[in-house]
TrEMBL record:
<feature type="transmembrane region" description="Helical">
    <location>
        <begin position="327"/>
        <end position="351"/>
    </location>
</feature>
<keyword id="KW-0472">Membrane</keyword>
<keyword id="KW-1003">Cell membrane</keyword>
<feature type="transmembrane region" description="Helical">
    <location>
        <begin position="413"/>
        <end position="433"/>
    </location>
</feature>
<keyword id="KW-0653">Protein transport</keyword>
<dbReference type="InterPro" id="IPR030659">
    <property type="entry name" value="SecY_CS"/>
</dbReference>
<feature type="transmembrane region" description="Helical">
    <location>
        <begin position="194"/>
        <end position="211"/>
    </location>
</feature>
<feature type="transmembrane region" description="Helical">
    <location>
        <begin position="231"/>
        <end position="254"/>
    </location>
</feature>
<feature type="transmembrane region" description="Helical">
    <location>
        <begin position="385"/>
        <end position="407"/>
    </location>
</feature>
<feature type="transmembrane region" description="Helical">
    <location>
        <begin position="287"/>
        <end position="307"/>
    </location>
</feature>
<keyword id="KW-0811">Translocation</keyword>
<dbReference type="GO" id="GO:0065002">
    <property type="term" value="P:intracellular protein transmembrane transport"/>
</dbReference>
<comment type="similarity">
    <text>Belongs to the SecY/SEC61-alpha family.</text>
</comment>
<protein>
    <recommendedName>
        <fullName>Protein translocase subunit SecY</fullName>
    </recommendedName>
</protein>
<keyword id="KW-0813">Transport</keyword>
<dbReference type="InterPro" id="IPR026593">
    <property type="entry name" value="SecY"/>
</dbReference>
<comment type="function">
    <text>The central subunit of the protein translocation channel SecYEG. Consists of two halves formed by TMs 1-5 and 6-10. These two domains form a lateral gate at the front which open onto the bilayer between TMs 2 and 7, and are clamped together by SecE at the back. The channel is closed by both a pore ring composed of hydrophobic SecY resides and a short helix (helix 2A) on the extracellular side of the membrane which forms a plug. The plug probably moves laterally to allow the channel to open. The ring and the pore may move independently.</text>
</comment>
Length: 459
């Protein structure tokens, strides 16, 4: 505990790091404040009553898939008709599209290799594509909320403007696009002047903002059952901590591939020989190289089985796909995650390029020939570690359905026992802590250099 307190003092003593953290916190406050500003055409008071009515009708389970994920990422702004309803997700979608297109379009491949100028151009393309994604998602979002409100006659006062008029649609679309662009700008400002990856931090803050409410709901339900409620809450918290620990392990687990470099050195006899350097380096291949992307892709496709129920509403098997806690939904969900884990890892880890770079720089894997054999070796290792990583990730994704009902009583709190939300929180926190540690280490290094200089020069 003393070391932790001392670390906090060290962080606060560094003016640059302190300013970055305070700047990040200020941007987060602006983002959270904006998420509570409703669209001008929507009566915010009526929205809260309607959402409560919708949940009581069972809409929370049917909407807990990708829509629930979007609402979680935006801290509830998506489900509260906020000006930030689209949040940062259009930018994430645009980034994924650019990344995938970079595998097939030579121009984007060239930009990826052009260093800083290429990255700036790719960022500009991503920003413009974000606006295009917003122009598609904004009308879809407005359609969804109008369909949500209109069936209930008692909630017609939720609109200040006729929902089918141009005066409702045009300003609302412009505001939603502006809100998403503003969120993107806030995220980039955190990355430039704050600490951590700004886009990821905004997503994490949106997720964390829903945790206290979910926990309080779980406490209310458990305490309503009698004297065992407090004990069950304690057991749930301890189990949740174990799940967080497993998420950390999944995020940081790597397979280290030893690398040795060949250098030309002149022996004492005057003959040049290829000598192996004594120091070894490593290629860290992550067990879960795809991160949370397989879960996001799988959730996007899980809408398809639910749509099939419209053709045969009497089919109980298909009806199960509309509930994210059903066994039908989660079996297919887990299989899709495993498939996408291999797919996304294959397109994002360039083993051929890694082998070529090693060969060009004089590096090699012990007992493996440079070139194609090295690429095949890395691909084989990557395939072997991706399978357990994909299985672990799929179990993690369906864990909320496993604990729901039998262990955790409320839907909202169960969703924090795994899945995309928890993995994103863990990943972002680990990345931010790593950046803070880097600042601390650099400061310690600079301090030693300054002390040596002062002893030598007398200044």
């Amino acid at each position: 505990m003393k070391e932790f307190i001392q670390t906090l003092k060290n962080i606060w003593s560094l003016k640059e790091l302190r300013d970055k953290i305070l700047f990040t916190l200020g941007i987060i406050l602006v983002y959270r404040f904006a998420s509570y500003i409703s669209l001008p055409a929507i009566n915010l008071a009526e929205v809260g009553d309607l959402l409560e009515h919708y949940k009581n009708q069972g809409g929370n389970k049917q909407g807990a898939g990708l829509l629930g994920l979007l609402s979680s990422f935006t801290g509830g702004a998506f489900s509260h008709a906020s000006v930030m309803a689209l949040g940062i997700m259009p930018y994430i979608s645009a980034s994924i599209i650019v990344q995938l297109m970079g595998m097939a379009i030579p121009y984007l491949q060239k930009l990826q290799k052009d260093g800083e100028s290429g990255r700036n151009t790719l960022n500009q393309i991503t920003r413009w594509l974000t606006i295009g994604v917003c122009l598609v998602q904004a009308p879809s979002y407005l359609t969804s909320i109008t369909q949500l409100f209109l069936p209930y006659a008692q909630f017609q006062s939720a609109y200040f403007v006729e929902p089918n008029s141009i005066m409702f649609w045009l300003p609302s679309i412009v505001i939603l696009v502006a809100g998403s662009v503003f969120a993107m700008w806030l995220g980039e400002k955190i990355t430039d002047k704050g600490i951590g990856n700004g886009i990821s931090i905004l997503i994490m803050v949106g997720i964390l903002s829903r945790l206290p409410e979910a926990f309080l709901q779980e406490m209310a339900v458990q305490n309503g059952k009698g004297g065992m409620g407090s004990i069950m809450i304690l057991i749930e918290v301890l189990f949740w901590m174990v799940v967080v620990l497993l998420a950390v392990i999944l995020s940081v687990a790597v397979r280290k591939i030893p690398i040795q470099y060949v250098s030309r050195a002149q022996a004492r006899g005057g003959v040049n020989k290829n000598l192996m350097q004594g120091a070894r380096q490593w290629i860290p291949l992550k067990v879960n190289a795809a991160g949370v992307m397989p879960i996001i892709f799988a959730q996007a496709l899980m809408f398809v089985p639910g749509l099939l129920t419209k053709f045969d509403e009497s089919n109980t098997f298909l009806a199960g796909f509309k509930n994210v806690f059903s066994w039908q939904y989660n079996v297919l969900f887990a299989l899709l995650i495993i498939i996408f884990s291999f797919f996304y890892t294959a397109i994002t880890i360039p083993v051929n390029q890694m082998a070529d770079d090693l060969k060009r720089n004089g590096g090699l894997v012990p007992k493996v020939r440079p070139g194609k054999e090295t690429a095949d070796y890395l691909d084989d290792i990557l395939s072997k570690i991706t399978l357990p990583g994909a299985i672990f990730l799929s179990i993690f994704a369906i864990l909320p359905a496993i604990v729901h009902g039998s262990f955790v009583q409320t839907d909202a709190f169960a969703l924090f026992f795994g899945g995309t939300s928890l993995l994103i929180m863990v990943g972002v926190i680990l990345d931010t802590v790593q950046q803070i540690n880097t600042y601390l280490l650099n400061h310690h290094y600079d301090g030693l250099m300054q002390s040596k200089l002062s002893r030598t020069t007398g200044y």
